[in-house]
Amino acid sequence: KSKSKEKDKKKEPASMFMINGDKDSKSKKKGSKTGLHFFQSMQKIPPSPEIEFDNLEDFVMDPAPQGVTVKCRVTRDQRGVDKSLYPIYYLHLDNDKKTFLLAGRKRKKSTTSNYLISIDATDLSRGGENFVGKLRSNLMGTKFTVFDNALNPERALPDMSNARQELAGIIYETNVLGMKGPRRMTVIIPGMNKDSERVPLRPRNECDGLLIRYQNRRMDNLIELHNKTPVWNEETASHVLNFNGRVTQASVKNFQIVHNKDLDYIVMQFGRIADDIFTLDYNYPMCAVQAFAIALSSFDGKIACE
């Protein structure tokens, strides 16, 4: 018996991991207007070097350096009565120092899911100076928008120079297989200019945001990404993706984000390694706040997203 078990284990490479079986279900044209400048330099990414920075807020808002995979770890703290309903999520670099990057928590008494993102693990207040962004869902919990920490357009200057930017739009599609199958995600982020900087998107109202632009196919200076479709594995009777050893447990929350023009370039990947620990890796043109917010949206408790 023990020999046959060993054989079965060998059938599935260690780098592949299942998508279904989640424990958690209970709880390149330069100058073009498509925002796809980053596709001109997509190649196999080498291992991440030791990452250092002087200013934390700048680092989490700036796109990852080209050619560098920023490897991180998300931990979920849900100890205590309050935290079981409103866990705190932490993002650290996955290095020897475990460098802290971001913390996030859902706001209480909010009509829709609303997460605050902070560069201080102990200060998750909306008015605090460490607030760097937020993630807000629609009523159904199927669509999310990520904002920076600037002002609501209604309170901003007429020239919109101090108005908030939209950093990402996230759409979850209903899965015909229900909770047992992999999710389908679409992620819309602002495009990059020729200097590899994010093109600012400051909508004047809700009719001009990322999600509405995507809905109306107004894709100038926007990048459309999707989760990579997992492959059905007959031997393990599960959907699998190759995480190159970065994911070790099956979960519907395991996903990889790619662009249709290059399915081998992983813009972001996220997956479980323990009950409350997940790896999160991201590449150019994504930044830490965008990647962390996308991960937070995957934790949201709405049935439509489970």
TrEMBL record:
Location of this chain's protein in the cell: Cytoplasm
Family: Belongs to the TUB family.
Region annotation Disordered: where it falls in the sequence: 1-33
Keywords assigned: Cytoplasm
Source superkingdom: Eukaryota
A cellular-component GO term for this protein: cilium
Lineage of source species: Eukaryota, Metazoa, Chordata, Craniata, Vertebrata
GO molecular function: actin filament binding
Organism the protein comes from: Oryzias sinensis (Chinese medaka)
Compositional bias per record (Basic and acidic residues), positions renumbered to this chain: 1-13
Any one of the GO BP annotations: protein localization to cilium
Protein name: TUB like protein 1b
Domain Tubby C-terminal: 61-300
